[in-house]
User: Fold these one by one.
Assistant:
Number 1:
Amino acid sequence: MKLREVKDILEASVVVGEEKLDMEVSTAFGADLMSDVLAFAKAGSILLTGLTNAQIIKTAADRSIAAIIIVRGKEPSTEAIEMARELQIPILSTKYILFETAGILYSKGIVGCLKKVDGDFYK
Amino acid sequence: MRKASSAVWKKLKPEVNASENILVKNSFDVDGGNFDTAGTVSTRIKSILKEQGLPSDVVRRSAIVSYEAEINVVSYAKRGVINLTVTPAAVEIAVNDEGPGIPDIEKAMQQGYSTASQQIREMGFGAGMGLYNIKSYSDRFDISSEVDKGTFLKMIILIQKP
Amino acid sequence: MKLREIKEILNAEVIVGEDKLDIEVKTAFGADLMSDVLAFAKAGSMLLTGLTNTQVVRIANVLDIAAIILVRGKKPPAEAIALAKDVHIPILTTKYILFETAGRLFAKGIVGCLEKVEAGSERI
Ligand SMILES: Nc1ncnc2c1ncn2[C@@H]1O[C@H](COP(=O)(O)OP(=O)(O)OP(=O)(O)O)[C@@H](O)[C@H]1O
Ligand SMILES: [Mg+2]
């Protein structure tokens, strides 16, 4: 699915990365804990989060996350926006809560970047 | 009580009148830095309010604002006291702490602003939403602070809406 | 839907509240930020979270959360288990990540306790 479709489905606003809406995405990870993002989020996935600070943008970029979807109607901080521009990582913002965001995307075919946290599924 | 605080107190007096029938008056100590007991005061407050038979919305909002304030004392201050007063008209929760104080209250009230340490963040705090939640869940809210001294919060939840 | 069905859908393990699997749940909220849970989660909803400390149980108690579903294979510490037993809040743990957990439950008809963070979108 194109990021543009993700944006449309979630009625999201594009905070950073208007020019990147044609990128393809197929997997997602949702968390508000930096350490869990570091541990489990996979390169190329979209990250659904309620974190809005510059650190999460840096962490996401380090993990080669494709795009950040900020949930619960939150606005990223100015520093976060600057960081995202610099690291060229798109930020979208949606009013849907994380549960709904995940539910809606899942029903449109987006899957978890890993299914389970289990010996067999760690990669 | 510090000067700044008593001014706040006076300003809010009409809501909880001293001459009014006081149903509950309780004071609880909060231990700064102790996350093992953090939140226990608010749990107590919730059950006290429930026992009073207050509407569930009032109980819930009181517990939320008290919890957020309590966690802030544990996260940022040395120690604090939470005073609970219930009258037929309102629940009043006043929180006084000894600690670093808040240099810029306006900034601290903004959603997303947080100085929480990495350790506190890993416990799930540090969204910078606590004070904002307190404000939105109380019917009246006042905050004052003195750097290197402490912070004073007063929240009022009305039982009967005017 | 009964909590028992949630357990089946998520291949979850029941850590606290084996006796409470017949409670009915319809709505959920998922977050790892305590203040966001306090701001938005509604009484009677399930809380999906990666937080396992005693604070999350205290918050669930403050909010009258129906059950805590720990995601990403997390296991709560002994103190959190003891507290949950005390306050009678069931804790289940699933290996699914939050995205998959939400996706699977949503597909079976569970909805958010609110849809969006905007006025009038509360579901309960
Ligand atoms: N009692 C206090 N003493 C000193 N500083 C405080 C106190 N309460 C709040 N602050 C300051 O105000 C900031 C914002 O507080 P707020 O409760 O809104 O968010 P937070 O505690 O950082 O995160 P959250 O409450 O969402 O977990 C804090 O990060 C801290 O810098
Ligand atoms: Mg706080």
Note: Confidence is low (pLDDT under 50) at residues 1-14 of chain B.
Number 2:
Amino acid sequence: MNRLRALGKWFDDRLALGRLYDHTLGHRIPLSSASAWYVFGSATLLCLIIQLVTGICLALVYVPAPDQAYASIEYLDYVQPLGWYLRALHYWGSNFMVALVTIHLIQVFLFGAYKYPRELTWMVGSGLFLATLGMAFTGQTIRFDQDAYWGVEIIVSILGRLPLVGEYATHLLQGGPIVGSETLSRFFALHVFVIPGLLIGLLVVHIRLVLVLGISEYPEAGKPLDKETYAEDYEATVARSGIRLMPEGGGKDLVFSALILTAIILCAAFIGPKIPNGPADPSLIHTVPRPDFYFLSLFAAFALMPPYLEGFVIVYLMPLAVVLLFAVPFLSRGAERHPSRRPGAVVLVVLVGVSLVTLAYEGVLSPWSPEMDAWSGQPVQPQFVEGRSPLEHVGATLLQAKQCRNCHALDGKGGKRGPDLAGVAMRLTPDQLVRQVLQGGGNMPAYGKHLAPHEVSALVAFLETLHPANAAPARNSAQPSGGVAGQPDKP
Amino acid sequence: MNRRLLFRMFRVLMFAALVLGMASGCDSLPGRPDPADRYQRPDEVTDFTTLFATNCSGCHGAEGRRGPATPLGDPHYAALAQPAYLERIIGDGVGGTPMPPFAQARGGNLTEEQVSVLAQGIRAWGADVAGSTPTPPPLVAASPDQNPGSPARGEVAYAAFCADCHGPGGAGGEKAGSLVDPAYLGLVSDQALRTAVIVGREDLGMPGWQADQGRGISAGEISDVVAWLGSQRPSSAQGRPSGDGR
């Protein structure tokens, strides 16, 4: 034992580990900072470490070449022993990291921890937040499946709209004028060199700031922050009742991190990695691409936004949002830190949170994207076939053949871009049905030129049967007997 | 919370993580991707059930029954339809009707192999009744030019065999809808009419030829009824629906 201690001392004399400890893990923090609310930052760090370890392992197998990337992912999934597990850990590590860094950011915002003297810590942290999202995005891209292809197309079209630099930026990112073989190399370099380098650099500064400035006290309502006396007060508090970050202060961090580690392992083992959905080949349009969850809101926002707004949002709103994020400490200058004294901040968090969740929910349903295979693969259910006449049956097959079903569901089955047609005869009279089909409107194309008169009659005859058996359908006002005006074909 | 307790929790959790991490070494956890879920290019699918469900069930119904178009899953239909005939219809579609061409050569999505898998699969639905007697009239009329049905005789046959349900003159009745609606006739081929009479729509309450054990409508009368219905097709029907894929 004494030998061991002597050896330890030998190293300590040279490396000064004891002093390093005193200034880092051993540095003293206020007792109130060892709060259970303060555990998210360290857990994010844990995720980063998992990502680095698993990422390096993955890089040993992954081939960043367009014709082999997808195959190497499948090799990991199906051939390499435990390759799938490695992918699963990396995938869930990234999901947890995005979630935790977001929660950390919200917590710091709500507790006003970005206020004097920690403005710079917040700004560097914002950089870390964006870098984490950048990692997540480039990571899903180098899977190089159809979702990835979508992602690149979107980001490129966003960049392309930036004034002046737009064209240049897209060229730089794609490695050429179109999404092609060079693009993958660019994203790979970003994912394994550029962004991680940036991330680690920012992290060093972030941690340095935490160590120099200490950890903010748990906020107290009615105890405003005074810049004049802050430093003195902080030092006094630490001297009076301070504890060491490790081991006294960090117990909760350790437990929470262990919990997160267990959760990641469990998710990886039981849910597994994200299975790539087909090679990135624009000629395959059968799947509806969808990004990983953290970008669902963005995906939904762009899909739902009217096209004339897109330019404005991309050129002004998105950069503005980033600038605002960095500028938070300078915009919110009040002395109060406790959320109960800052209702505006709470409302803001709730608003942003609710809109992101709603958008993500829309993104999960992605009702705006037509269901490409519905016309041939989504049966007209028997309840819409029974009791119908031969003409109405042909109408139903036309509803399929003209791909109306790709946008319109029948009783919940089919595309969700347009309204469900199951009860449409209750809403629209035969005349209105004809008009809708011929002229379209809203987001529906006009079919006038693509339908022969017989086809219109058959389609509308079928649509007219779409009402509950016990309810009368809507009628043309002028023609109480029904029948389609202007359609002499009716019997 | 006291420190000892926290550290004990930490130890327990780390131990759990370690055990779990090792347990995943057995490589048979639920998270492991199942090669069956692996993405397949649509043109590599050769499983009949999948092919039918994704390409045909929309109109012909799940398993070929109770959909708006011809009940391909009716064993009597499946036993009568020859593979070459099925392959031709699937590949080329039926011009002037909603039945689209599926062959890649005709702008569809299916490879020749997939078309043939579909034809074989549909045939297999009829295995139970194939070869049973009495033998129904051929699904496809020998050659309409050689042996055209007579509309006049067809009208008589219609009154005898169909009017009960489809109403006098074909205008629709209590039990079934109109067969002479110009829009309907303008969008349906003679072959589809013939198929309807021979196979029926057992799934919707229309008996086929089989129901009377052949004592009902004769092969000649079938051609006549089809000829009579076809004669009422409006001249405005753009490009007369044709069973031969034109």
Note: The domain at 151-237 of chain B is CATH 1.10.760.10 (Cytochrome Bc1 Complex; Chain D, domain 2).
